[in-house]
Design a protein that fits this description.
By secondary structure, this protein is α+β, with helices and mostly antiparallel strands. It has 2 domains: 2-119, Thrombin, subunit H (Beta Barrel), CATH 2.40.10; 127-211, no CATH class. The protein is built from 4 helices and 12 strands, in the order αββββββαββββββαα. The protein has a 6-stranded antiparallel barrel. Strands 7-8-9-12-11-10 form a 6-stranded antiparallel beta barrel. It is globular, with a radius of gyration of 18 Å. The termini are far apart. It comes from Devosia oryzisoli.
Length: 228
């Protein structure tokens, strides 16, 4: 299995493909079972994504992965920062996916890019931690960012106006969308350093361990650095 998934990591630009996924066979519910993700690798039978909420092995997942379309299947493996899905598809869909992968490879090698990609910044390290003023924290995924704000996906969707810290930068939630929310920084950041301040892969691991105890409870919040 791993050889098949890893065989596609040579696709130039694959890490720029963002999408969203739904856990379970129920309607999409933003902040409940609909989240953003970043593609790590893909083949005609499996894909591997970085994700803020990791389903259990065997869980059904449907993901929309931009140029590769909508792919359904079951979680086959959990990774430190995401999961691998075995794609459920017939021969016709697999052939179409093979063509999409080939087209993506050819477009990348020719230097062509989607216009949307030129209008945003994608973090090289999308894993981060979202914290509230009360000390509660959980892992989150950086969808994209600018010097003045960041788009985030996480297992907890705050309300507009709520104060949160992403990595080491604090701001307020200004917009909610299907797969996440947008945070406006209290202070505009230097473009050269904002990405390093947003990323927090080490804190991601600790927050993931603590948040595994269950969803956010405002009465009994999960606190970083506190044993549960």
């Amino acid at each position: 299995m791993s050889d098949c998934v890893q065989s596609q990591t040579s696709l130039f630009g694959i890490s720029t493909v963002t999408g969203h996924y739904v856990i379970g066979r129920v309607p999409m519910r933003p902040g409940i079972n609909l989240y953003a993700c970043r593609l790590r690798s893909i083949s005609t039978t499996r894909y591997n994504v970085v994700a803020p909420v990791i389903p259990t092995i065997g869980e059904s997942v449907t993901a929309n992965l931009g140029p590769f379309g909508t792919l359904s299947g079951k979680v086959e493996q959990n990774t430190e920062d995401g999961f691998v899905v075995a794609i459920s598809a017939g021969a016709t869909r697999q052939e179409a996916l093979a063509s999409q992968i080939s087209e993506f490879r050819n477009r990348s090698w020719s230097g062509l890019r989607e216009r949307r990609g030129d209008r945003r910044f994608l973090a090289h390290e999308p894993r981060s931690m979202m914290a509230r003023p009360d000390g509660w924290a959980q892992p989150c995924l950086i969808i994209d960012y600018s010097a003045s704000g960041v788009a985030i996906s996480a297992g907890y969707q705050p309300e507009v106006g709520e104060v949160v810290t992403i990595g080491k930068i604090t701001g307020s939630v200004v917009r909610i969308f299907d797969a996440g929310f947008a945070v406006h920084f209290f202070e505009r950041q230097d473009a050269a350093s904002v990405e390093s301040l947003l990323g927090a892969p080490q804190e991601w691991r600790e927050a993931a361990r603590l948040s595994a105890t269950g969803p956010y409870d405002p009465v009994q919040p999960v606190l970083v650095g506190t044993e549960t």
